[in-house]
Amino acid sequence: MDSVLDRQSVPRMPWHDIHMQVDGPAAADVASNFIQRWNHAIRTSQTFGKIKPYLVGLPEDPSAISKLLPTVNEIGFRDCECQVLRSVASWSSGITEPETSIYKAMRAVITNAKHFIYIENQYFISALKSNTGRQPQNIIADAIYQRLRSAIINKEEFKCVVVIPVFPAGDLNSVTTRYIIKYVYKTISRRKHSVLQKLQEEFPNQNLEDYIIFLSMRNYGEINGVMHTEQVYIHAKLMIVDDQITICGSANINDRSLLGDRDSEIAVITGTEEGKYDSILGGKSTKVSEFSHTLRKRLWCDLVGIAANSEQANVLRDPIAGYQFLLATVKNNTEIYKRVFPYIPDNIRLLSQLNEIKKESIISEHRLLKDIRGYGVLFPMDFLIDESDASMSPKVRDAEFLVPRQCFL
Question: What pLDDT shows up at residue 47?
């Protein structure tokens, strides 16, 4: 198959994603979900009456399902308790009331987190409870805000790391892309009901980086003697809490994925409260989930450019102590990218600058690139910050103006 783009001359945006393979009874639950949704689609099809197979039954041995699948040898399986979660409703599976078990699980594990929360997600569009009459409706952001607020008040050693794309996939001149960007920033740091502004308002003397950071991923490369950079697009939907619990699946942090009656989603939550694997949290020996710990450590190694199986990776064994190393590394990476590539979003405060600034690297600064470690960078908090609210929203002449706002959230 021929590529539409010439890979020798056009830089391509790399993607970062995470998937999970399950075995045993959980695999049977995944199959049951598929059978339920398949049969519902057959029953409600507009072409009903044509020959279409209904699916029935499961094998007596649930593990027989996954025995047909290849084993991921690089990681292998971990023994851990797990449960399948869903976002489904009448339109997607025929049930009478929407199921929001992914949303409930996310809120529960954030609220009960003891040491840290690690999130990777394609979107971060949510609201605080204080925003009455809110859109979006999901309050994942409020759960994070409340947990951080408690940590600050009680002077806990607590950390939260959120990794999201630099901006959503799409043309930055697109109305849809700008509208989604607007709501991501309204969730994080812009407007009084954002997570960071609300915390800073209540704790004006607190450096919030001591508790929470927002990151993205970026890479660079040379094509035909020209240096380019692109974000590494985060497509993962992952949450790891205290190296004990992992939620991994298809659900974004937005209303579309979490409210049940919108997009249909599936995820798996793993881990037990006590854990079984020797590790360190906040400088103290403890037991954690081997699966959650090794996955989180491997992902952090990607962010800071350390081989996951190396002795140096031990600096990230304790996520509380490793947080400072992670933060220092991504800050250094960010400053280098800003100097070498002045056209990246970190340096863009207005839409007009997107076309004004030449997409060229500063050749005299190329020497700095050798000091970049891993893919982690700070999320660009000032991107398009000087744009008005109206310029980031659909106008009357735009087709998107006729689309209900909740469709974007």
Answer: 62
